[in-house]
Write a structure and sequence with these properties.
Blueprint lengths: L7 E8 L6 H11 L3 E8 L3 H16 L7 E5 L2 H5 L4 E4 L6 H13 L11 H25 L4 E4 L4 H11 L4 E4 L5 H12 L12 E8 L2 E9 L2 E2 L1 H11 L14 H6 L4 H10 L7 H4 L22 H20 L13 H8 L5 E8 L12 E9 L2 E4 L7 H22 L6 H6 L9 H14 L8 H5 L1
Parallel strand pairs: 1-2, 1-4, 2-3, 4-5, 5-6
Antiparallel strand pairs: 7-8, 8-9, 10-11, 11-12
Helix pairs in contact: 1-2, 2-12, 4-5, 4-12, 4-16, 5-6, 5-14, 6-14, 8-10
Length: about 475
């Protein structure tokens, strides 16, 4: 029997199984896959959404390339976890309406955010809402699926992956993010410039990743054994002032206007620090003071993604999902850019697979605290998550990223220990608040806590005041 004919059985528990985004992406990828024979349990606090996705999953199974995956909505977390090989977590902490407050309130104090889900005041408040839930999920995994491999897809990635390890130190968990794909696509374009047949895709690009989630850099780029760093450096310098994207979106393409960029921040960071930045500009910009990129985002040619657009887009996706579930629309099998299916197959005995992932630092990234959640390459192989030795960042860049990393670690610790009085200092220390007067920073903090008080841990508002 050849490898391509072999099917790896896997039981997947999907927490957030009513998702309109990542859950359906996984369904499409499983339908396009020829490696796995999957049983997927869908758990969601909204059981009706999980049942809808169960119906959608059965539609994808009908048109699968390989062994059809089986989907089942499950009403309680212990049952969903029992016997799981893989646990996937993708949940929205609160609602988009709550996220809107995370953006609107800081903007009143002169702090714009392009995403607001990782760092800055928005990322901080999102973490406050999500960490308690992730601590409970971690404890449930310890009780019901301690041997499972756990993939966290939820932002803020570093903080929430850290919360899972805080709840269950023995957990076998990684944080999965596709942002590094963006530099790999640029590298593939460079490698293909003189090849009309477009020989290489981003999957052919090898990079060495260093940093923390959404603030990642690479110090090696290669394609088919060719060192692309000199060509990339020349390309970035050439396009630094004008920006570049492979295909200019249509002016009416609202999604592209709010989610895409022309890589000017990425290219400028290479000028400043000598290494290519890997993530998209919308994320990279949020790690630096407002006056560096966010304050002139139009000049830097990236958008601020408004929550009202996210709400409209979610409604559109819901319409599509309902149509697929009811049989009024055919499911489309499109292999996404995500690496999750390949990672699962490798962990369960398939072909080893290397990809960027977020893990506690065990020495793979020099200069960072032991146990801090860092993003480097990781080797996925039978029963193992092995971080790849990444090396060390340049000193000036390391100082910036370590500072962010220590705030993330401190935030998890404060919430685990319920040390709510120390939270404001962590909030205040973010570079996006550097130019905000102390009185305004304190007022912003109080306003943001009050805006979603019903979603925060009991006692936080009183002790944090």
């Amino acid at each position: 029997m050849t490898y391509s004919e072999y099917r790896i059985p896997v039981k997947i528990t999907y927490i957030g199984g009513g998702s309109l985004n990542w859950a359906l992406t996984l369904m499409s990828d499983l339908a396009a896959d020829s490696q796995l024979a999957a049983e997927v349990r869908l758990y969601d606090c909204d059981m009706s959404a999980a049942l809808r996705n169960e119906r959608i999953g059965s539609r994808f199974a009908e048109v699968s390339v390989g062994t059809p995956a089986r989907y089942r909505a499950v009403s309680n977390l212990p049952e969903a976890l029992e016997g799981a090989d893989i646990v996937v977590i993708s949940i929205l902490p609160g609602r988009f309406e709550d996220m809107a407050k995370d953006l609107d309130i800081p903007l009143r104090y002169g702090v714009p955010q392009s995403v607001g889900d990782t760092v800055g005041p928005g990322g901080f408040m999102r973490a406050l809402r999500a960490v308690p839930t992730f601590l409970e999920i971690g404890k449930a995994i310890k009780a019901h699926a301690p041997e499972a491999f756990v993939c966290n897809l939820t932002n803020p990635m570093s903080v929430l992956t850290g919360a899972l390890y805080a709840a269950f130190p023995g957990i076998r968990c990684w944080g999965e993010c596709h942002e590094v794909t963006k530099i790999r696509k640029i590298a593939a374009f460079i490698a293909n410039r003189d090849r009309p047949e477009r020989l290489f895709s981003f999957r052919d690009v090898d990079v060495n990743v260093l940093g923390i989630n959404h603030l990642t850099f690479v110090d090696r780029i290669s394609v088919a054994g060719r060192d692309l760093m000199p060509a990339y450096a020349q390309f970035a310098a050439h396009h630094r002032d004008t920006g570049w994207c492979e295909v200019d979106p249509a002016p009416e393409d609202e999604h592209a206007r709010y989610f895409e960029d022309r890589n000017r921040v990425k290219f400028d960071l290479m000028r400043r620090f000598g290494l290519p930045a890997a993530a998209g500009d919308r994320h990279l910009a949020e790690f630096f003071p407002v006056n560096e990129y966010l304050g002139a985002h139009a000049v830097w040619q990236f958008g601020l993604t408004p929550v009202d657009y996210r709400i409209r887009h979610q409604a559109h996706r819901r319409e599509i999902a309902e149509a697929i579930a009811s049989g009024d629309r055919e499911p489309e099998i499109i292999r996404s850019d995500e690496a999750l299916v390949d990672q699962i197959a490798a962990l369960l005995g398939g072909k080893p697979f290397t990809a960027n992932a977020n893990l506690p630092n065990a020495g793979q990234l020099s200069g960072f605290d032991h146990g801090a959640i860092v993003e480097t390459n990781v080797l996925f192989s039978a029963g193992k998550l092995t971080p790849v030795k990444a090396g060390r960042l340049p000193t000036d860049l390391e100082e910036i990223i370590v500072e962010h990393s220590r705030r993330q670690t401190a935030l998890v610790r404060a919430l685990v220990e319920e040390d709510y009085r120390g939270l404001f200092a962590i909030f205040r220390g973010d570079p996006l608040l550097r130019q905000v007067p102390d009185r305004d920073a304190a007022a912003m903090y109080r306003d943001m806590l009050a805006s979603t008080a019903h979603l925060l841990p009991a006692g936080l508002l009183q002790e944090a005041a």
